[in-house]
Automatic annotation (TrEMBL):
Protein name: Alpha-dioxygenase 1-like
Organism encoding this protein: Gossypium hirsutum
UniProt xrefs under SUPFAM superfamilies: Heme-dependent peroxidases
InterPro entries registered for this protein in UniProt: Haem_peroxidase_animal, Haem_peroxidase_sf, Haem_peroxidase_sf_animal, Oxylipin_biosynth_metab
Lineage: Eukaryota, Viridiplantae, Streptophyta, Embryophyta, Tracheophyta
PANTHER family: ALPHA-DIOXYGENASE 1 (PTHR11903:SF11), PROSTAGLANDIN G/H SYNTHASE (PTHR11903)
Length: 329
């Protein structure tokens, strides 16, 4: 009876859902199928970013639930997640743990990257067509397109600032890979050749997905780009006075004895990313000053934790509300 009911409801729902999603919806529970219809309708109307706050939060919660249930493939065996009370960890941890109430290790540093589709092993076809040829033919700008005041170099700084917060593959430092541009596009590539470390593969313990890559950053929107993704890095960026982070007197990133900038993540960085790191370190410290003035009884650790929550929320707000809705198509 339940099967017949589900089949009938799926047939009705299909009338309102694009055919590309019929197969996905057929695998959902009845409740999730209706939730998908709700999200799908909002997407077709293109009004998600104009929804009232409460409805917008409900929309995002439903979308996240559907993605987690039906659009992600787990990679790598992990210890069984232990549920915990969010009230026990009302702050951002150093390594990204204790964010998911159902699994304390979810999204922590060193977690496997999940997948949206099963891997296809075709090493012999990996360079066909050559990625440099693809990039040159598809991305080369044939004529200048003026974006007026909407888009500039700060955009490149910002998106890299976000990537430094979210993801980076652990590398195999025992070997290097070199890519050389084919002759047909060599004179059109800014980098005719470059070397890099390949992604390190780890055994997953799974039969169908034998290996996977691990994230050396924390994928949560936790500001790890300025705080670091582990306890060791966090210890290096903190002053341990009034909850503040280290910053030089001239407002730029402080440097260690080797001349290396002190910040949460400095891998493959440049002036654009460093500028934003310095900006949000100063934002964090300004929040600490405000909190200390309003709540003089807060100690160093409490000031740091609250200021990090505020600062990481500001970063997320800028990207979701300011950046996303104004980025040129």
């Amino acid at each position: 009876m339940a099967f017949i009911t589900k089949t009938l409801l799926n047939n009705i729902l299909r009338r309102f859902i694009h055919q590309d999603f019929h197969e996905a919806v057929s695998s959902m529970t009845i409740t999730d199928a209706f939730l998908f219809l709700m999200v799908h309708s909002v997407d077709k109307l293109g009004i998600w970013h104009r929804l009232p706050v409460i409805l917008g939060l409900i929309y995002l919660a439903v979308r996240r639930h559907l993605h987690q249930q039906y659009n992600l493939i787990n990679v790598g065996k992990t210890p069984s997640g232990v549920r915990f009370s969010p009230g026990d960890y009302p702050y951002r941890t150093a390594d990204g743990s204790y964010n998911d109430p159902f699994n304390e290790g979810a999204g922590s540093q060193g977690s496997f990257f999940g997948r949206n589709i099963m891997p296809v092993h075709q090493t012999d076809k990996l360079m066909k067509p050559d990625p440099m040829v693809v990039a040159t033919k598809l991305l080369t700008r044939t004529q200048y397109k003026d974006t007026d005041k909407q888009f500039n170099m700060i955009a490149a700084s910002w998106i890299q600032f976000m990537i430094h917060d979210w993801i980076d593959h652990m590398e195999n430092t025992n070997q290097k890979v070199e890519l050389i541009a084919p002759k047909e596009v060599a004179n059109k590539c800014p980098l005719s050749s470059f070397k890099f470390y390949p992604t390190r593969e780890f055994p997953t313990g799974f039969y169908d997905i034998k290996s996977g890559a691990k994230n050396i950053r924390t994928p949560w929107w936790d500001g790890s780009v300025i705080y670091g993704s582990n306890k060791e890095r966090l210890q290096k960026v903190r002053t341990f006075t009034d909850g503040k982070l280290k910053i030089s007197e001239d407002g730029l990133l402080q440097q260690d004895e080797d001349g290396i900038p002190i910040s949460g993540d400095i891998r493959n960085s440049w002036a654009g990313v460093s500028t934003l790191q310095a900006l949000f370190i100063k934002e964090h410290n300004a929040v600490c000053d405000t909190l200390k003035k309003e709540y003089p009884d807060l100690n160093d650790e409490e000031l740091y934790r609250y200021a990090r929550l505020v600062t990481s929320a500001v970063i997320a707000k800028i990207h979701t509300i300011d950046w996303t809705v104004t980025t040129p198509e």
